[in-house]
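ok so for the tutorial part 2 we go from a plain amino acid sequence to predicted structure tokens. step 1 is just haveing the sequence, like this:
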Amino acid sequence: MGKPLMLQEADADRIETLKKRLGARTKIQVVRSALDLLERDAERAERVVRWRKAAKLVAPESRRVLRDFQRHSRLRRLD
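step 2 — the prediction. this is what the tokens look like for a chain of 79 residues:
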């Protein structure tokens, strides 16, 4: 069974306006669409945090490898 949701009048109006703009059949379809977007946004933010952490972990080794390659660069031997 569904759970009742107490909405302020302004929020109910916003949902109704979005319902018309999105062509949604029901108010709950609007709410579910909003929840989907919020979940995607939260997952993206978490993914960015993981990427930054991973980049921070590999940065020293990456710099070392880059320096190794620069020593053997053909560009320096062209002179």
